[in-house]
Amino acid sequence: MNTLLILIISIPIIEIYLFIKIGSQIGAITTISLIFLTAFVGVLYARYEGFNTLRSGMSQLIKNELPIYEIISGAALAFAALLLILPGFATDFVGLLIIFPPTRKFLLKKVSKNYSKKVKENKNYIEGESEDIEEDNGRKL
């Protein structure tokens, strides 16, 4: 919960800082144009990669295999498109990292390794015994 609160507060601060720094170097109109350009190009590329992921998932289904990577990759692409639509240079950078297949595979492997470690650490088992209960006429309940 604390990490989420820190992200909600820090992301707009970072974006505003970058707007001021970059805007003072290249100008306000150029900065605004660059924001719209990255959003437009990023969403188009996310759409292209989304169709590639969908095509790959369909080929996995035809082979009678579960397209787990394609499902996760599709969700990551949707998140990347959202980041690209949001105005800002930092969110655009992270969105572009997620969209490109080599960095997306690298990031997904890192996240899956961290998730699997947490799952292994948090396994709680409840031990118990069971017994069959029979009625008087010999049938099990």
Q: Can you give the helix content as a percent range?
A: over 70%
The largest pleated sheet is described as: none
Q: Detail the poorly predicted runs.
A: none
Average pLDDT score: 83
Oligomer: single chain
Number of strands: 0
What value does the Rg take, in angstroms? 24 Å
Q: How many helices does DSSP assign?
A: 5
Structural class: mainly alpha
Write down the overall geometry.
elongated
Task: Give the end-to-end Cα distance, rounded to a whole number of Å.
Answer: 46 Å
What is the N-to-C order of secondary-structure elements (H for helix, E for strand)? Answer: HHHHH
Strand content: under 5%
Question: What do these coordinates show?
Answer:
The protein has 141 residues and is mostly helical. The protein has a domain at 16-111. The protein is built from five helices and no strands. It has helices at residues 2-26, 28-62, 68-85, 89-99, 101-121. Helix 1 crosses helix 2, helix 2 packs antiparallel against helix 3 (68-85) and helix 3 runs antiparallel to helix 4. The longest helix has 35 residues, at 28-62. The two termini are 46 Å apart. 13% of the residues are buried.
Short précis:
This protein is mainly alpha-helical. The chain contains five helices and no strands. Helix 2 packs antiparallel against helix 3 (68-85) and helix 2 runs parallel beside helix 4.
List descriptors:
mainly alpha, 141 residues, single chain
